[in-house]
Amino acid sequence: MDDNVGTGGHVPVMLERVLELLAPALAGPAPVVVDANLGLGGHSEALLAAHPALHLIGIDRDPFAIEFSTRRLSPYADRTTLVHASSGDLAEVLDQAGRPVIDGALFDLGVSSPQLDEAERGFAYSYDAPLDMRMDTSQELTAERVVNTYSAGELARILRDYGEERFAQRVAGLIIRERAKEAITSTKRLADIVRDAIPAATRRTGGNPAKRTFQALRIEVNAELSALEAALPAALDALTLGGRVVVLSYHSLEDRLTKQALTARTKDTGPPGLPVPLPAHQPRFRLLTRGAELPSDEELARNPRAASARLRAAERIRVDD
Ligand SMILES: C[S@@+](CC[C@H](N)C(=O)[O-])C[C@H]1O[C@@H](n2cnc3c(N)ncnc32)[C@H](O)[C@@H]1O
Question: Which is the closest atom of ligand 1 to the Cα of 41?
């Protein structure tokens, strides 16, 4: 198979900037980088091509991503370790790979193009498909299970917290009423229910009303935020002096978690007013980005899916004794 055809024209998001930010950390004789969201292997391939001595550990919870990237990265097979796992288990993955210390880490969060484009995976409200949304197709929890078994309160919380849905209670209420008639098993029926639950005046603005509900369910099914909460600190802890992390997030919840994790480590933690700052209180990291960086207009014209991307990066400037 021609891999370029196989990537469906997929373009890795903010690729040049990712390469530029990681390059100084990968200049040593035997650098190691972790790609915690391997996907189609686009960023990984570019990193391997740019750094001939680089060893790359690629993680993805989607078995199809691992299968695809194993083929795509086969020219670099002797320099790659690809692991089917959640990035939430990043520390264990590094230990098992015998590489507990790393020089770089990349997080390109969220869903991949094939996950969105293959209707039967049930991520997209634009296709009618079984309500699935599992990135890891071997796990038990599906969107169908969430929608048909969670309480009204749990559903409303998920829609509010993970979808930032203003009408969370109304949507949850209608889901409960509709599922009492017949189980909700398809993306189309769920999208119709959401549309009916949203007041008509709001429906006319702001795109497809199902978008927020589908995002919320996806985050719940794949426990995306708790994976990030575990993975990012684990990657930061594993970075060597001068090591760098780059995070691409696609919604405000991911970006907020990322910002919190990075800024917590870039602050002096000493009590205010100390005459001489103590080494133990000095920041371990410095930010490489001011605020979150956005894709250029030119990239957005080429790749509309980059639209919601936010990039943050940091460098380790101190290690614990
Ligand atoms: C945006 S895509 C990555 C695309 C990739 N950078 C490329 O250039 O092809 C995100 C990938 O992260 C994976 N993913 C999401 N959450 C994950 C997690 N907690 N652990 C491992 N993989 C995860 C998804 O299955 C998906 O393949």
Answer: 9
Q: Which pLDDT tens digit goes with each residue over 129-186?
A: 999 999 999 999 999 999 999 999 999 999 999 999 999 999 999 999 999 999 999 9
Determine if ligand 1 sits within 6 Å of the CB of residue 243: no
Please work out whether the CB of residue 41 comes within 6 Å of at least one atom of ligand 1: yes
CB-ligand 1 contact for 86 (6 Å cutoff): yes
Is any atom of ligand 1 closer than 6 Å to the C-beta of 293? no
Indicate if the alpha-carbon torsion angle 301, 305, 310, 313 is positive or negative. Answer: negative
Residue 211 Cα, ligand 1 centroid: separation in angstroms? 20
95-134: pLDDT as tens digits? 999 999 999 999 999 888 888 888 888 888 888 999 999 9
